[in-house]
Amino acid sequence: MKLEIEFLLVEDDPNDVFLVEHAFRECGDGHRLHVVGDGQEAIDYLMGAGPYKDRSKYPLPRVILLDIKMPRLSGLEFLEWLHHKAPEELRVIPVIVMSSSDDERDVKTAYGLGANCYMVKPIPWDEFEERMKALNVFWGKHAKTPPVAA
């Protein structure tokens, strides 16, 4: 039996959203990718607030893919919320930071706030696609993630 994994992509750049969606489709493994545009929308999604109330349509993710440079609520602010203010059952969701920033301060801060991985987005499309496929395979097929209760 093939297990579908729910991923939540928190990304404000429509081009990056397109690229991640494309890479996930290319893998053809049935994992589902849900997309929100910033950290506040991610909080609303995880809490089932507003338009995200219907858990059959917006299930809790097993893995979060997170940009850090976003309007309203940044990825770093989201990480702080997730690991310090969110309900305990949500704090176990693995978070993979995907950022164009390779600034050591961003990397250190992200890990300090509980990120499980920090990945710098490469500019060439083929490199980005390969990383997304590898991430999809690793977190979708090989890594054991804890179940998250609604």
What does this 3D model show about the protein?
The chain is α/β, with parallel strands linked by helices and 150 residues long. It has a single domain, classed as 3-Layer(aba) Sandwich (Rossmann fold). Helix content is 40%, strand content 15%. It has five helices and five strands. The chain has helices at residues 14-27, 39-47, 75-84, 104-112, 125-142; strands spanning 6-10, 32-36, 63-66, 95-99, 117-120. The chain has a five-stranded parallel sheet with strand order 2-1-3-4-5, with helices on both faces. Helix 4 (104-112) links the parallel strand 4 and strand 5. Helix 1 crosses helix 5 and helix 2 packs parallel to helix 3 (75-84). The mean pLDDT is 88.
Q: Tags for this entry?
A:
5-stranded parallel β-sheet, Rossmann fold, 15% strand, 5 helices, 150 residues
Structural class: alpha/beta
Amount of beta strand: 15-25%
CATH architecture: 3-Layer(aba) Sandwich
Q: Outline the biggest β-sheet.
A: 5 strands, parallel
What is the first-to-last residue Cα distance? Answer: 23 Å
What is the H/E order? EHEHEHEHEH
Question: What is the CATH homologous superfamily assignment?
Answer: Response regulator
Strand order of the biggest β-sheet: 2-1-3-4-5
User: How many H/I helical runs?
Assistant: 5
